[in-house]
Amino acid sequence: MTGHTLGWVAVAVAALVAGCGDKPQQNGDQVVLIGQASPLTGPQAHLGKDNENGARLALDEINAAGLTLGGKKVVLELKSEDDAADPKTATTVATKLVDEGVAGVIGHLNSGATIPASKIYSDNGIPQISPSATAVAYTASGFKTAYRVMTNDAQQGTVLGTYAVTQLGAKKIAIIDDRTAYGQGLADEVEKAAKAAGGEVVAREYTSDRSTDFMAILTSIKGKAPDLVFFGGMDPQAAPMIRQMKQLGMQAKFLGGDGAQTPKLIELAGADAEGALASNPGLPLDAMPGGNAFKAKFEAKYGKIQNYSPYAYDAMHVLIDAMKRADSSDPAKYLAELPRTDYQGVTGRIRFDVKGDITGGAVTLYQVKDGKWQTLETVQSGN
After folding, report:
1. Which of 104, 261, 283, 373 is deepest in the core (most CB within 10 A)?
2. Which CATH superfamily includes the segment(s) 154-281+363-380?
3. Angle formed by the axes of helices 153-166 and 181-196, to 10°?
4. How far apart are CA 358 and CA 337, in angstroms?
């Protein structure tokens, strides 16, 4: 190695050491990094961008209003990462966000990505609020850094299973899940509730969150003549499943969870979506306390809301509200404020139980009528 090369190395090392622990500056203001993780590529990218845009809208509003912590002007900066709805990628993304020095994380979108990532955030003391991970296992871990602003699958699955039997009159039910933490977890809860309500589960099948051909599974299920098929999974699989049910001449109703209750499902399934049913945690957008105002400003900037963006927006506000109450962006200081949250958001009043779940969540049932999701009923659910 030449002396010239050694000199460059010494300069680089000195710069690196000097930079360690320094807070980035922007026009003299302290910059606080907030992470956001969701699928930004692949078949669920429309949902991931929806989350990202909801979080960004809140962050932009907070910056525009001005934020001061510890007597210093603070500028928030969003560090958004693509976890591809994949558990392994999610851990890589979580490690990257921690290494970049984020003060908190909004995400992840999918339960299967959120759960493994949550341990990394917990190990590093980084608060995490998911707008959309509904699997019970996420907050059951006991991590003090893990929160969510959406009703969990125990609540949603209970409503779905009970509704299928008591309101839709389904005596024989077939259940399919995508084997993700979300899809399988929700399907398990639906099965328990349906049986408790007097329904018979005549088939329990599974696929993957990448499959689009369900003809073999559906042909097997058709022979058992179910009144209703429940699918635990997301819209890229739900839409072709609905189309293939129609191709096979199945008369069974289709019922999904929040992963299926999107405008994209109707776009993908076309006319075959007519009559499909699905639930979503929370109130319908137009019934949310700040729903109509949020819709107007979000859609003016980003276009149609897919699903979870109001929750991502609220998650960002809840995170920053905790920082304001602690007068600090230091995770070790403001984390203590998160359990004391009592925030009136777009989606409703946000308070957390001891596990980090939102208290008193609602679940709403929808059906596709005339090419649009129409509200059927909202069921209030306690924790």
Report:
1. 104
2. Response regulator (3.40.50.2300)
3. 40
4. 15
Fold match between 9-151+287-352 and 154-281+363-380? yes
- One-letter amino acid at 298 equals F
Structure tokens at 277: 């049913």
Locate the domains of the chain by residue range.
9-151+287-352, 154-281+363-380
CA 195 to chain centre: 28
* Mean pLDDT, the chain, whole residue set: 93
- Residue 366, beta-bridge partner list: 278, 375
Report the pLDDT value the prediction gives residue 361, as an integer from 0 to 100. Answer: 80
Neighbours of 249 (CB within 10 A): 7
Does residue 255 register a pLDDT over 80? yes
> Is residue 322 predicted with pLDDT exceeding 90?
yes
**Strand ranges in the chain using DSSP code E only, listed in sequence order:** 25-26, 29-38, 67-69, 72-82, 104-107, 128-130, 146-148, 172-177, 200-206, 228-232, 253-256, 277-281, 343-344, 349-350, 362-369, 372-380
**C-alpha 61 chain-centroid distance:** 21
φ, ψ at 327 (rounded to 5°): 55, 40
Beta-carbon contacts of 346 under 8 Å, excluding residues fewer than 6 positions away, are: 288, 289, 290, 291, 293, 294, 310, 313, 314
- Which pLDDT band holds residue 382 (cuts at 50, 70, 90)? low
Q: Which residues pair with 374 in a beta bridge?
A: 367
Phi, psi of 269 (to 5 degrees): -90, -20
Angle between helices 87-99 and 111-123 in degrees, nearest 10: 30
Distance linking the first and last C-alpha atoms of the chain: 65
- Topology (CATH level 3) of domain 9-151+287-352: Rossmann fold (3.40.50)
Assigned token pair, 4: 């010239």
Using alpha carbons, list the distances in angstroms from residue 60 to 64, 130, 232, 264.
6, 19, 34, 27
Decide: 18 and 89 in contact? Cβ < 8 Å: no
User: Positive or negative, the Cα torsion across 383, 256, 297, 328?
Assistant: positive
